Amino acid sequence: MATQDDARGREMRTGHPAPAADTAADQPWWVTAIVIIGALAVLSLTVGALFDPQTVLAPGQHMSAAAHVWARYAAAYNVALGVALLALLAIRARRILAGALVQAAFAEVLLAVVAIIDHRWEQIPADIILLIAFVVSASRLFGQPPWRTAAWRDSR
User: Fold this and answer.
1) Is 56 inside any structural domain?
2) Is residue 129 part of a domain?
3) Residue 50 falls within a domain, yes or no?
């Protein structure tokens, strides 16, 4: 296993950053905690969408057949994302997990926008907290912020 000095030297020689953390010891406990809590939060949206779809509507709106269909589609997306986060964590696919966390962060941005449009102010703090937690975790797994293109490129 390469040391931190080896990784810095490799970056200086090649111009490419060192690969993201490869072992469980390299991943801090808080990244694991954020992934688990975030996945549970995403999965909890599934429960609401399937069993109490009224929760996805703005105040004063009434449930229609179309809203029921939309809620089931939203539930399917939430299950896929939540299970993917947990599965990627379990198999230690850190770079793919980082990408999934960026996708989850983008979903939180969109959820916050919808909350603003629907005047659901109580939802916005949770969206912002998850957004920040997902981006910070993805940055740690990538070894650099996800908005840098080098984070997405394969290192050789």
Assistant:
1) yes
2) yes
3) yes
Angstrom distance (rounded) from CA 108 to CA 28: 23
In a domain, 111, yes or no: yes
Q: Which residue blocks in 4-123 are alpha helix, DSSP H?
A: 4-14, 29-51, 65-90, 94-117
Per-residue DSSP letter, 151: G
What is the chain's pLDDT, residue by residue, as a tens digit (156 residues)?
445 555 555 455 555 555 544 555 578 999 999 999 999 999 998 888 888 887 777 778 888 888 888 888 989 999 999 999 999 999 999 999 999 999 999 999 999 999 899 888 998 999 999 999 999 999 999 999 999 888 888 776
Q: State the residue range of the domain holding 116.
A: 29-146
pTM: 0.77
Q: How many domains are there within the chain? A: 1
